[in-house]
Specification:
The structure is a homodimer. In chain A, the strands form 2 sheets. In chain A, strands 4-3-5-6 form a 4-stranded parallel β-sheet. A two-stranded antiparallel ribbon of chain A has the order 1-2. In chain A, 43% of the residues lie in helices and 10% in strands. Chain A has 2 domains: 5-56, Helicase, Ruva Protein, domain 3, CATH 1.10.8; 66-172, 3-Layer(aba) Sandwich (Dna Topoisomerase Vi A Subunit, Chain: A, domain 2), CATH 3.40.1360. By secondary structure, the first copy, chain A, is α/β, with parallel strands linked by helices. Chains A, B: May play a role in DNA repair. It seems to be involved in an RecBC-independent recombinational process of DNA repair. It may act with RecF and RecO.
């Protein structure tokens, strides 16, 4: 009886938890213990939240944001600017921009970047949806807010190319010194970009 | 409509996940995204595993181990030595000893340590259960495997005192250099203990 059912229950749960980013096998076991000690206040609410959120939340048909409604609440918010679309790689980037609270337009979530290495081409991303939105008219600016990585910038260049035939402004996020950042810790590329884009004081 | 229901779903889930040890607010949000991308293969199985494990698994009436049976499979395993009890603070310590595979007796889980600071006295721990088990007879050795912390050692001394009136051996884990450990990185207490308990080569 070395193949304990109890071990199976607990270990199966630990194995599932270990698949979450940020949790390894050891911290997943710690998490299981923590959960078993807080069944009513944490474990069962978490089970319910997981199944309910899985059932309710899905991608918005317009922008790809995750929401329990489609179109999502950003797309259907009348107070947001419909003429400007900010293109991001992932929903996490959309969340980051929303947390910053500095953007009041629409979004478009690509669902990744072009990657020759991983075999991700334009058809694997939500690019056709973006072109269709722009083609539908009424858009005056597209901000390409892909990450400042090689793949992110490759994707931005590809989109720039695709969007060139439309009568609109295509922009990208500024490079520079992060607010609160120390020059000593920045890479040369960032410093170069920050110098090149220097502004009058 | 700033109080989005969608934000509530996703953020409520993130808040619950952030209560797990090892996950902060940021990694909890990353985990939610990861889960939403793997609904069928991870999110729903995790929800099921959580509710099933919560329902099935509870503390063993004899030793306090977590199991879907009570008495647990260690207590009811006929091949394990019934005459020796290893006392641990927490189920995680029991798991660690079981992973090491070096102990084939019974366990007793205290559920913590005595702590004057946190107001945890003998009645808050599963100490009466241990005394009852020893009082029941048939035990020849109790190993006090509480942690080598101040609270752990205080608890061990308290238990030593309580167990003194029984006719049995009370032992504790050896202190010394961890296997694979480098002397340079060890604290003086450990080095002193390792020297004091030195053995012929």
């Amino acid at each position: 009886m070395t193949d304990h059912q109890q071990q199976n229950d607990i270990e199966a749960l630990a194995k599932l938890l270990a698949k979450l980013p940020g949790l390894g096998p050891r911290s997943a076991r710690r998490a299981v213990l923590h959960l078993l000690k807080k069944k009513e206040s944490l474990m069962l609410p978490l089970a319910t939240a997981l199944s309910e959120t899985a059932e309710r939340v899905g991608p918005c048909a317009i922008c790809g944001n995750l929401d329990s409604l489609s179109p999502c609440r950003i797309c259907s918010d009348a107070r947001r600017d419909k003429t400007i679309i900010c293109v991001v790689e992932d929903v996490s980037d959309l969340w980051a921009l929303e947390r910053a609270g500095a953007f009041r337009g629409q979004y478009h979530v690509l669902g990744g970047t072009l990657s020759a290495l991983e075999g991700i081409g334009p058809d694997n991303l939500n690019i056709r949806g973006l072109i269709d939105r722009v083609d539908g008219g009424g858009i005056r600016e597209v901000i390409l807010a892909t990450n400042a990585t090689v793949d992110g910038q490759t994707t931005a260049h590809y989109l720039m190319d695709k969007l060139g035939r439309f009568d609109l402004t295509v922009s990208q996020l500024a490079h520079g010194v992060p607010v609160g950042g120390e020059l000593d810790y920045l890479d040369e590329g960032t410093l170069l970009a920050a110098l090149k884009s220097r502004r009058p004081f």
